[in-house]
Amino acid sequence: MSNLKAYAVGDSDVYAAHTAEQAVSLANDMHGIEDDPAFSIDDVIVLSDADLDKEYPEFDEDELATGRMTTIRHWLNEMRDPGWLCGSDW
């Protein structure tokens, strides 16, 4: 298990990162323009335990519903390195 935390950045993406600053950097690498970053530290919220434990429908690699439920905490525990974790547009 790593010491990564889940950070919501902007309106629809969650990143696994060690710090809020790292989450912003990851988001800007994915969405920003080098000279005009899309996000700042003000756009970051660390997810609460309630957020991490909320259940969502699980989908397989073909994006088909499996009939099971999963959580952001489950996905976070599977992460070994910082990066994009999930979208929040369910």
User: Strands of the biggest beta sheet: in what spatial order?
Assistant: 3-1-2-6
Task: Give me the strand/helix succession.
Answer: EEHEHEEHE
Number of domains: 1
Q: What share of the residues does DSSP label as strand, in percent?
A: 25-35%
What characterizes the major β-sheet? Answer: 4 strands, antiparallel
How many helical elements? 3
Q: Between the first and last Cα atoms, what is the distance in angstroms?
A: 27 Å
Question: What is the helix fraction of residues, given as a range?
Answer: 25-40%
Number of strands: 6
Radius of gyration: 13 Å
Low-confidence stretches: none
- How does the overall form come out from the CA principal axes? globular
Q: What's the average pLDDT?
A: 92
Return the structural class: alpha+beta
List keywords for this structure.
3 helices, single chain, 90 residues, alpha+beta, 27% helix, globular, 6 strands, four-stranded antiparallel sheet
Give an overview of the whole structure.
This protein has helices at 20-31, 49-53, 72-78, and strands at 5-9, 13-17, 44-46, 55-59, 65-71, 83-87. By secondary structure, the chain is α+β, with helices and mostly antiparallel strands. The chain has one domain (5-83). Strands 3-1-2-6 form a four-stranded antiparallel β-sheet, sandwiched between helices. It has a two-stranded antiparallel ribbon with strand order 4-5. A hairpin with a 5-residue loop joins strand 4 and strand 5 (65-71). The chain is globular and about 45 Å long.
